[in-house]
Specification:
Structural class: alpha+beta
CATH superfamily of one domain: Hypothetical protein af1432
Largest sheet: 4 strands, mixed
Strand content: 5-15%
CATH architecture of one domain: Orthogonal Bundle
Number of strands: 10
CATH topology of one domain: Hypothetical protein af1432
Helix content: 40-55%
Strand order of the largest sheet: 4-5-8-9
Radius of gyration: 22 Å
């Protein structure tokens, strides 16, 4: 970074130079935001795409930059006021501040145990972490109002839609960023065209002018391809599930649980937030604990076996992989029955429950409430309702059903 008149400049691989004014500089310098330098954007994607080691920090800066550009456009168009600018920029920068180490991989653990996701953890950090609270207070901003924008619960629908819609600043950054670092070209979108034409309709929904409809269609199709080739890639998902299983095991093994405390319970995490020590909960901490367990031969033999499988890339393999596209959400009962039958059979044969995993996911491709609108003659229409748009023909959901297991179980599973 370099400085000039209290401003700092960061060069970003997607957006070029990002200028940090005093407000953004002070927020970026807080320990919780600096922690994001040590949290990978795509968790275990580097197991498949070696270049996918970019971080939540660079992504957060990019989202802030896009929020700034779009907000400035909407202010110039008379749609938003200048008072909205700092709220939206802060919310954009802090939108991922609550991500667990390795992003979504460990979020699964805390959601399944405590029903809390990274958006809710972000809400907690923005409202309760002392460094962030101090910066926002010093600049005359409401932490609670910013936290509501991040979680999509703000009283102003436009704020929620700009950060939590189908075509929001989050997705507009991560698609091209993840495409660049994975080398998968499907995520390329006409970003400038979208920014030039983006607006809000009378209800606060994100809309674009008809001349940008092809750019929006490309965005939806690109996102669908990235879902298939990167975000829900069977091998990447397998390593996310394996790391989650390891973390869960550590929570039940007293000898090694202390190595991860206080990040072993929701109460412990909340305490670390209030004390300002959440910043040490990162990829380095979790990865270091795994190495310590192996080096000192701590914990159970099955825990060490799973850790070895993880670090040596001998992890879960997808022995069953079924993907379908549907207009309605829901995994078929026959698929659920199949997973339950196989799980029960493996357990009755004495197979350890941590050596295999069943996985189902219903991924929304088009969100009815958050769908992009096309604005024409002061009237907006959902893009999927336009007769001449290909989005009308896209499925609404991608359904995924998989069975994962360590390679040693291959023969057993094939014979089921």
């Amino acid at each position: 970074m370099g400085s000039e008149n209290t401003r700092k400049y960061v060069f970003d691989e997607i957006h070029g130079y990002i200028i940090l004014d005093p407000l953004m500089r002070d927020l970026v310098d807080t320990p919780p935001v600096q922690r994001l330098r040590r949290v990978k954007q795509l968790s275990q994607a580097w197991y498949v795409f070696p270049g996918a080691v970019h971080t939540r920090f660079s992504h957060s800066l990019g989202v802030m930059k896009l929020a700034e550009k779009i907000t400035d456009k909407l202010i110039n168009d008379g749609i938003l006021s200048k008072d909205d600018r700092d709220l939206l920029r802060c919310a954009a920068l802090l939108h991922d501040v609550g991500h667990t180490p390795y992003s979504h991989a460990l979020e699964y653990v805390f959601y399944s145990r405590y029903g809390i996701n990274h958006e809710e953890l972000s809400y907690m950090i923005i409202n309760e972490e002392p460094h962030i609270k101090e910066v926002l207070s010093n600049h005359g901003l409401s932490s609670n109002e910013i936290a509501k924008i991040v979680t999509g619960t703000h009283e102003e629908p436009a704020f929620n839609n700009l950060l939590n819609g189908d075509l929001d600043v989050d997705r507009l950054d991560y698609l091209p960023r993840d495409a660049l670092h994975t080398g998968v070209r499907y995520g390329l979108i006409d970003l400038e065209r979208i920014i030039q034409t983006i607006t809000l309709d009378d209800e606060g929904y994100v809309a674009v002018h008809p001349k940008a409809i092809h750019a929006v269609e490309s965005f939806y199709v690109s996102r669908l391809h990235m879902y298939r080739s990167v975000y829900y890639h069977k091998t990447i998902t397998g390593y996310q599930l394996l790391l989650a299983a390891i973390y869960e095991m550590i929570l039940f093994e007293r000898e090694v649980k202390s190595l991860l405390e206080p990040f072993t319970s929701l109460e412990g995490i909340r305490k670390s937030v209030r004390e300002g020590s959440i910043c040490v909960w990162d990829d380095f901490l979790v990865g270091g604990v795994l190495n310590v367990v192996l080096a000192r031969k701590l914990g159970s033999e099955i825990l060490r076996e799973l850790i070895k499988a993880y670090i040596n890339r001998r992890g879960y393999k997808a022995f069953y992989n079924h993907i379908s596209f549907k207009q309605e959400q829901g995994i078929t009962s026959s698929e659920i029955d199949k997973l339950n039958r196989i799980s029960k059979t493996l357990l009755t044969r004495g197979v350890n429950a941590y050596t295999f995993r069943t996985y189902t996911e219903s991924v929304p491709i088009i969100s009815s409430e958050k769908e992009v609108r096309i604005l024409s003659n002061a009237k907006s229409t959902k893009i999927s309702e336009l007769e001449d748009s290909i989005i009308k023909s896209l499925p609404r959901y991608m359904e995924i059903v998989r069975i994962y297991a360590l390679p040693a179980l291959e023969e057993i599973i094939k014979n089921l």
